[in-house]
Design goal:
Layout lengths: L16 H13 L2 H8 L3 H15 L4 E4 L2 E4 L1 H26 L6 E7 L4 H15 L3 E7 L2 H9 L5 E5 L7 E8 L2 E5 L14 H4 L3 E5 L4 H13 L4 E6 L2 H9 L4 E5 L4 H5 L4 E3 L4 H4 L2 E7 L6 H11 L2 H4 L10
Parallel strand pairs: 3-4, 3-5, 8-9, 8-10
Antiparallel strand pairs: 1-2, 5-12, 6-12, 7-10, 7-11
Helix pairs in contact: 1-2, 1-3, 2-3, 5-12
Length: about 325
């Protein structure tokens, strides 16, 4: 969680609050100089205070890499403890607010772009109407960033597609959402019978997400397992761009059917299933940080999120399987 220089959470007696904050600022900024710029102090002051902090603890906290710094194993223990205390303080304040009837509060969410339609139009619309005093901050990012933000307490809640496992993450809800081949209704692949084979796709241009996204990771796994390589006509970090790419007839793309439900309903796109076990095994997950207590506002939002069709299975699957 990024350090706030004006915030002074309680810390065990004997450890300097200022040194702790300088240490956390250096880790978050990635270098002593960047931390100094953010806190408006001299870099030598931060270096000296962190060195004193290391002497107090009896361990090395930072290792220098070029012009930057990285946290040691011991530093991560200090960071985890610091984040837990901040999270506990945040939860306490939220629960005190709840005594006034859940009037105010803030929830930070991170999610992949493929969740945006249902998230905005259904979940956040209804939640916002019922809880107008609760501010929801939503950031869209790739799956690795979603997991990292939740694990490091930068976000209360994450929605991720085919995320990697992480020891600090707890999965609250998960549902299979197979990756489909997304094409225009007049695409030649729509005339094939049965589920598509990977080799049926090789002759066609493909739109792909950039590395780091869950969809791209799955495609890379397929290429490795099948010893093939798809012909990319477009590589982008935008789900919307891939939808337009397929709808324009420039090529096909890969994504779960629910990510293109509106376009399928409008007759602009078709989702074709494959027989590939990797693509069939993809899932959508609702994730939180392990062992973190939730305020009533977060718990209420989690209830709404669990009911999303992408997680609960409510709503029709609009895939074609001849």
């Amino acid at each position: 969680m990024p350090v706030d220089p004006h915030r002074t959470p309680a810390f065990p007696s004997g450890l300097s609050e200022r040194r702790l904050q300088y240490f956390v600022a250096a880790v978050n900024a990635g270098s002593i100089r960047a931390a100094a710029d953010r806190l408006d102090v001299e870099p030598s002051v931060i270096s000296r205070q962190i060195r004193q902090f290391e002497l107090e603890l009896g361990i090395t906290l930072l290792e220098r890499r070029g012009r930057g710094v990285t946290a040691t194993e011991g530093a991560h223990l200090v960071l985890d403890y610091y984040r837990e205390r901040l999270a506990g303080e945040e939860t306490l304040l939220a629960r005190l607010e709840e005594l006034n009837g859940l009037q105010r509060g803030q929830i930070r969410m991170v999610a992949g772009e493929g969740f945006i339609d249902e998230l905005i139009n259904a979940v956040l619309h209804e939640f916002g109407q019922n809880h107008p005093g609760i501010e929801v901050t939503l950031e869209l990012m790739n799956v690795n960033e979603v997991v990292r933000h939740v694990a490091e307490d930068h976000a209360h809640v994450g929605l991720a597609y085919a995320p990697p496992t992480h020891p600090a993450i707890r999965v609250l809800a998960s549902r299979s959402q197979p990756v489909c081949v997304i094409v225009r209704p007049d695409h030649p692949l729509t005339r094939r019978r049965g589920a598509l084979n990977v080799r049926d796709i090789l002759a066609h241009r493909v739109g792909l997400m950039t590395p780091g996204h869950g969809l791209r990771h799955l495609i890379q796994m397929v290429e490795f397992a099948e010893r093939v390589r798809f012909a990319p006509g477009l590589t982008t970090n935008s789900i919307a761009a891939l939808k337009h790419y397929a709808a324009a007839g420039l090529g096909l793309t890969f994504m779960p059917a629910l990510a293109v439900s509106r376009e399928i309903a409008a007759g602009q796109l078709v989702a074709l299933q494959t027989d590939n076990t990797i693509l069939q095994g993809a899932d959508a997950q609702l994730i939180v940080r392990s062992n973190r207590p939730h305020s009533a506002a977060v718990s209420r939002l989690l209830d709404h999120l669990r009911a999303m069709s992408v997680l609960s299975g409510d709503g029709a699957r609009r895939t074609r399987r001849k």
